[in-house]
Amino acid sequence: MRLLHTSDWHLGRSFHRVGLLDAQAAFLDHLVATVREREVDAVLVAGDVYDRAVPPLPAVELFDAALHRLAEAGVPTVMISGNHDSARRLGVGAGLIDRAGIHLRTDPAGVGTPVVLADAHGDVALYGLPYLEPALVRDRFGVQKAGHEAVLTAAMDRVRADLAARPDGTRSVVLAHAFVAGGQASDSERDITVGGVAAVPAGVFDGVDYVALGHLHGSQTLTPRVRYSGSPLAYSFSEADHRKTMWLIELGADGTVDTAERVDCPVPRPLARIRGRLDDLLADPGLARHEESWVEATLTDPVRPAEPMARLAARFPHTLNLVFDPERAHDDPDVSYATRLRDRSDRQIAEDFVAHVRGGAGPDGAERAVLHGAFDDVRVDTAEREREVGR
């Protein structure tokens, strides 16, 4: 069976205030064309269809058109909600849409009920695990600890129980939206850390033939059977080196992944990160290749130059982001606050602040638990408010 695995469309999202709706429409054109040209048997969309719980109307219209085109192509599509989606809003009409071959899986209660497709070698059971916010689904799954590993394990236990009751030789595919250990994050994924832990081990998904992951925006292979498709477009400059693709998976008669091919997505405009003193950037002939790119420029001038954005735009007209990182000695007390915080999580920043105000003594275990709990409460409160808005 030939599967096309994609995720993280984030319909309605912009890139540094540049609208991406046309680029997203071009990607969906490419998706439908690939489905037809490569004779795909099923499309897998592993969450974050929209960028926010209440997407703008043009994004909804784009999504609606894509569903109609996939249905007209006669190719089954299995789609789950991600942490950016409103599960209830995305799942509206799922029962009716299901009859058209578009299978929306947004309700955690349905994780053990697969979409069953068949080919010449027998059945393939496709299980959709929507994003599972631990604090909101813990009671439903009967787990004691509100963590990602606990709730995903409980969900996979239901998958494995259903699969065990099916005829021998039934192949299995799971769609999930999660941060799996070994994956490389970028700046554009929303933090889903719970209790200081974001990642779950890949072993949680043992027992199935292919795992189509969403959430991380870079295409990645964790094991031959566990993969991230990544987002079809770049949504932050941290993705400048990403090759944006979908996975075309050939699932063999015995459930092995016979082939896994990366299918390139259209690139609306390349990204470039350039760094140096302003005059050097404007004069460097080696940067000519970036003159039509979306550019993030980091200026290292010791003194901030006059009108830097206007001067950069004269050579790089698509400059979207400007960062100042003046050249200073590492121990210079005037090293910028942004530089000191670079690559540090919110929890680490909070712990550093405690150490700063106490003269170097960081939080102990109990205090660290209180800090982590406060961050978790904020995230859960945000998720609950988005869920209410999505109703």
UniProtKB/TrEMBL annotation:
Highest taxon, organism lineage: Bacteria
Keywords, comma-separated and alphabetical: DNA recombination, DNA replication, Endonuclease, Exonuclease, Hydrolase, Nuclease
SUPFAM superfamilies to which the protein is assigned, alphabetical: Metallo-dependent phosphatases
GO molecular function, one term: exonuclease activity
Nuclease SbcCD subunit D C-terminal domain: residues covered: 268-356
Domain Calcineurin-like phosphoesterase per the UniProt entry, residue ranges: 1-218
Pfam families named among the record's database cross-references: Metallophos (PF00149), SbcD_C (PF12320)
Similarity section: Belongs to the SbcD family.
Self-association and partners: Heterodimer of SbcC and SbcD.
Name the record gives this protein: Nuclease SbcCD subunit D
